[in-house]
Design goal:
globular, homodimer, mainly alpha, Four Helix Bundle (Hemerythrin (Met), subunit A), about 160 residues
Chain lengths: ~160, ~160
């Protein structure tokens, strides 16, 4: 295994490890717990779960791996803050989306080759990418792992 | 820039970006705010700040970059949970440690070559490292960035 292959492995291991960690926290929480605020006047667990699914859905597009699975989550969970949209899916529904998405996303991620990870993501132009080769698909995983950890540190407070 | 160099750049950019983000949140909080619990009956901001300094101090050793700057923080901020040790440094003192540590650590990190990052960290044996080359110094930065993000997501709740 060369250093490039090792780098890809480390980044993907961290992503999958972070998903697994978040998952086990979600599984340890009841639906009622997830409906509570993580701290007084802060986001509810249900909002953060929807937010994670919505952000990871965007990852499918950024990695050029197809269409979003749940495009309807953009409006209530990315564009809007918690409680701004009255009708949102239930915790049970969101758990199902999260689970389905992880299944689909991990299958797609595992199909990419080491070379693929260093290709440009879909939100950067070919011109900019030529100057900034770090704006690649692997970097999307690196930044989204940070994002996932940030919110996992909040969801865990509901325990 | 080859793919290995790009990988190192992406990981270090994420580390320094995460430090910067945490830093700006810390600077936006008063000492009084940092003395509060992040959520009812959870860790206080002061504990998380001390915990981050203590964990990053350990990083200096793991990367084989010298001795810890603040070894006295291990006992109250890693070995013990919040409030278990009565005498801990003040928020003002911890802010100073955090700032000093980031200065020292970034200078040390910037001295490592791309090759250095793929060498073993100090907590893995040469024998194990031969079989598991991903247990290298760069991986320490990857996992500690996750850790930092996790707690940053908690500290921000004090705003």
């Amino acid at each position: 295994m060369n250093t490039t292959e090792t780098s890809v492995k480390m980044v993907l291991d961290r992503w999958f490890g972070s998903i697994k960690n978040c998952n086990s926290i979600l599984e340890s929480l009841t639906d009622e717990q997830l409906e509570k605020e993580i701290a007084p006047n802060k986001n509810r667990g249900i909002y953060l779960l929807g937010h994670l699914v919505a952000v990871h859905d965007d990852l499918i597009k950024l990695l050029d791996l197809g269409d979003k699975l749940f495009p309807e989550l953009f409006e209530p969970f990315i564009k809007s803050p918690d409680r701004a949209v009255a009708e949102i899916p239930t915790v049970t529904a969101l758990r199902g989306f999260w689970s389905k998405q992880n299944e689909v996303l991990s299958a797609k991620i595992n199909c990419l080759s080491v070379e693929d990870w260093f290709q440009k993501h879909t939100a950067v132009s070919a011109e900019d990418f030529a100057k900034e080769p770090h704006r690649n698909k692997l970097n999307i995983i690196i930044t989204r792992t940070s994002h996932l950890q940030y919110h996992t540190g909040q969801i865990v407070l509901l325990k």
